[in-house]
Amino acid sequence: MCLSIPSKVVKIDKENEIATVDTMGVQREASLSLMSEEDIHVGDYVLLHIGFVMNKIDEKEALESLELYREIIDAMNEEDRQLAILEADECSNQGD
């Protein structure tokens, strides 16, 4: 199952329609081709699916979600954390 964790836009390459996003300390690139250029700005929080930015979300909502994810991760043992990270990477790379 793929979960979309809020990610913060840290850089935008308008020429290639690519955003660099930070997801809980991990940076990756995501396509902006499904979004209007004017909709996404550095500092915005977005949700990703298979390598694409799908929508922008409210900062307060994003921060609340990230706090819940941190609580869940803190409650996991090390093996479960590693499995969750691997599954998240597989979901984000399915569009590659």
Properties at a glance:
single chain; 96 residues; alpha+beta; globular
Report on this model:
The chain is built from two helices and five strands. It has helices spanning 59-75, 78-92; strands at 7-13, 18-23, 26-31, 45-49, 52-57. It starts with 6 loop residues before the first strand and ends with a helix.
Query: Helical content, roughly?
Result: 25-40%
Silhouette: globular
- Largest sheet properties: 5 strands, antiparallel
* Unreliable runs: none
Instruction: Give the terminus-to-terminus CA distance.
Output: 18 Å
What is the topology, as strand order, of the major beta sheet?
3-2-1-4-5
Strand fraction equals: 25-35%
Q: Overall pLDDT, averaged?
A: 85
Assembly type of the shown chains?
Answer: single chain
Order of helices and strands: EEEEEHH
Task: Calculate Rg over CA atoms.
Answer: 13 Å
| Main structural class | alpha+beta
Number of beta strands: 5
| Count of DSSP H/I helices | 2
Give a quick rundown of the structure:
With 96 residues, the chain is of the alpha+beta class. It has helices spanning 59-75, 78-92, and strands at 7-13, 18-23, 26-31, 45-49, 52-57.
Write the layout of secondary structure elements.
Elements: E1 7-13, E2 18-23, E3 26-31, E4 45-49, E5 52-57, H1 59-75, H2 78-92
Antiparallel strand pairs: 1-2, 1-4, 2-3, 4-5
